[in-house]
Amino acid sequence: MKAKSKHIVITTAIIILIISIAFIAAINCKTGNDELYYTDKELQTLYEKYNITENDIKFAKGELPNYLEGTILYNSSKIVVANEDGIPDENMIQGVDYDIIISEKEMFDIIENAKSDYIEKYGVDPENPKLDSVDGYLLPVQEANRLVFQQNIWELLA
Length: 158
Fold this sequence. Notes:
Elements: H1 2-28, H2 40-49, H3 54-61, E1 80-83, E2 100-103, H4 104-122, E3 131-134, E4 137-140, H5 141-157
Parallel strand pairs: 1-2
Antiparallel strand pairs: 3-4
Transmembrane segments: 7-27
Keywords: Membrane, Transmembrane, Transmembrane helix
């Protein structure tokens, strides 16, 4: 008899927990049928909470240069080909199929050095931006992920 009542208590507790989570998510959810809205003060608070800098915002808006700018990988007037060994295939013609050929290792070194220089200069990791654009707002990635999670719960409840 005790095992049956223990099972009922545990089942009831789990049901209450699930309903509570769904209810809290529904109340806190800024998405759903309503449009997403943040005041400037709320955005500023989020930026401070997640250590978002002015350069993070400029990067997200596309106002900073591409981190590969100034490298041979960014120069649009040259055809750069990277392959395993940096040696052109025998059927490739320089000036037609490629202007510059480099090895994959050289390419990755150029990318890594450019990324390091960019982080040093701007304080922004171009491969790991801190902001996502959501409904016209630049939100910290953590906040955007939270909204997506809440939206998924909201859709499950609907």
